[in-house]
Write a structure and sequence with these properties.
51% of the residues lie in helices and 18% in strands. The chain is of the alpha+beta class. It is globular, with a radius of gyration of 14 Å. Keywords: Ribonucleoprotein, Ribosomal protein.
Length: 97
């Protein structure tokens, strides 16, 4: 896959998740090892989806969706540093722990 195709696939996936899931956690992943991330993904399987990505790509995608969904503009302020998204339709307290 080319860079352009990868970016298009990422945009499509992020858009799909934003439309499919009701709740979003933005999590700071500084000092989180790849093994820890794997454990988190496995423990959330079936209940939530973790999506990582470059902040520039995330911002660009969100800005493209703001016309349809103005509430997404609030997320732009939080797209800083080493972050990831956790998308879920489940109980937030349960997912958070």
């Amino acid at each position: 896959m080319s860079k352009r195709e990868n970016k298009a696939a990422y945009f499509q996936k992020l858009t799909e998740y934003l439309n499919e899931y009701q709740s979003i956690f933005i999590v700071n992943v500084d000092n989180v090892s790849s093994n820890q991330m794997h454990q988190i993904r496995v423990s959330l399987r079936g209940e939530a989806v973790v999506l990582m990505g470059k902040n520039t790509m995330v911002r660009r995608c969100l800005k493209g969706l703001i016309a349809e969904r103005p509430e997404l503009e609030k997320l732009l302020n939080f797209v800083r540093g080493n972050i990831g998204f956790v998308f879920t339709n489940g109980d937030l307290k349960e997912i958070r722990s």
